[in-house]
Design brief:
The complex is a heterodimer of chains A (115) and B (255). With 115 residues, chain A is mostly helical. Chain A contains four helices and no strands. Chain B is mainly α. Helix content of chain B is 67%, strand content 0%. In chain B, helix 3 packs across helix 8 and helix 7 runs antiparallel to helix 8. The longest helix of chain B has 28 residues. Chain B is globular, with a radius of gyration of 24 Å. Chain B starts with a helix and ends in a 9-residue tail after the last helix. Classes of the chains: A mainly alpha (115), B mainly alpha (255). At the A-B interface, helix 1, helix 2 and helix 3 of A face helix 1, helix 2, helix 3, helix 4 and helix 8 of B.
């Protein structure tokens, strides 16, 4: 049972992937991509956790020989979130462009128009 | 349509296969809560005793991985440049008028009266809070990226409460773009200064000061602040760009 946080990340990843593949709306598809990305936050933070660990902030009162959770994966999660926001914004902009040109948001209708 | 059903079958088979592999690899990770990284002792020692920084996340982001954070900041920067480029109006589609229609049978909601009352008090307080999170990023939880998100969302409240014209009066997109680019340039300039005095790119060259004080941690403090400025003005540029999509410039409709 101690692997539940990791499996949660896997489950969120697969759920988002299923949503992306079956989505009928480009905006919905981008939201599913964000869900996939959230799985990586869960996995990163879960993998750096230490039993009884405190947040890696070394200011103020803290017990002697306290353990801290790993700051490296937290910093990576922060990077992940910023990149995720940038990717989401760029994809939404492309969707606005698609709508302006084709007036559809269904990914299947896009390929149908092409042929 | 049988094509769609076939495709769905393929998808499920693929997901099950991927799920099994993913589950297998995840179950082989170290037990939850027992992470023993190679760096755990050194990071804390270096951060506290050599850099005088108390927020270890800030230490990792703006000292150990300062070069990666530079890359991250430029991913953000490039995404915003790309966003402006993708959304610019091409000559042929200038006055189409129905670029983003509302859903059938619905009109744009009027801003709530309560929101209008609260926002003038709420926005300055939130901006001050964002600045606090920004300049104490090396000491307490927070830092440039978080502060950027706080300040950006605070100013988005102006659009929610008072509509497009108020927002575009407050946030001048041409200026936010300039400030964002200048802040990103300052990050590089800090790195180059280290090169100029003979150290490696982005070395922490400034005096580290006294642990726990505002002016401490050397260049971590500077890098944290300039990336905070870049992110907050980046978010503002992003919002201004998206919001202007639903309101044609010149047509002037308020909310």
């Amino acid at each position: 049972m101690d692997k539940v946080p990791y499996l949660t990340a896997g489950w969120v990843f697969l759920a988002g992937l299923y949503g992306m593949a079956t989505s009928r709306n480009l905006v919905h598809q981008v939201m599913c991509l964000s869900v996939v990305q959230s799985a990586t936050y869960v996995l990163l933070l879960a993998s750096g956790y230490r039993e009884g660990g405190l947040a890696p902030i070394m200011i103020g009162a803290r017990p002697d020989n306290a353990t801290f959770v790993d700051p490296v994966v937290q910093a990576l999660a922060l990077t992940d979130i910023v990149v995720g926001a940038a990717v989401t914004a760029l994809l939404l902009a492309i969707i606005i462009r698609v709508w302006r040109v084709k007036h559809v948001l269904d990914p299947d209708a896009l390929t149908r128009d092409e042929s | 349509m049988s094509g769609a059903r076939l495709r769905h079958g393929f998808l499920l088979a693929g997901l099950v296969g991927l799920g099994l592999l993913l589950g297998w690899s995840l179950l082989n990770l170290h037990p939850y809560g027992e992470f023993h990284g190679p760096d755990e002792i050194r990071i804390e020692a270096i951060a506290l005793h050599e850099r005088h920084v108390t927020n270890l996340d800030a230490f990792v982001n703006f000292d150990l991985r300062a070069l990666d954070t530079l890359g991250e900041e430029f991913i953000f920067f490039t995404a915003i440049v790309g966003l402006s480029l993708v959304l610019r109006r091409l000559p042929g589609e200038a006055e189409e008028g129905k670029s983003l229609p509302l859903a059938a049978g619905r009109s744009a909601p009027e801003p709530d009266e309560l929101t209008r009352w609260i926002t003038p008090a709420y926005v300055p307080a939130l901006v001050v809070f964002g600045l606090y999170v920004l300049i104490h990023g090396h000491l307490t939880p927070g830092g440039g990226f978080q502060a950027g998100a706080i300040i950006g969302s605070a100013l988005a409240m102006i659009y929610v409460a008072f509509g497009y014209s108020a927002f575009s009066h407050t946030v001048d997109q041409e200026r936010t773009e300039v400030v964002e680019a200048a802040a990103a340039a300052c990050y590089i300039a800090t790195g180059l200064t280290a090169l100029a005095i003979g150290a490696s790119f982005l070395t922490n060259i400034l005096p580290v000061g006294e642990t726990g004080r505002l002016y401490s941690a050397g260049t971590i403090w500077i890098l944290n602040d300039v990336s905070g400025a870049a992110v907050s003005f980046g978010f503002l540029t992003m919002m201004a760009e998206f919001i202007s999509q639903t309101h044609h410039r010149g047509s002037g409709a308020g909310g």
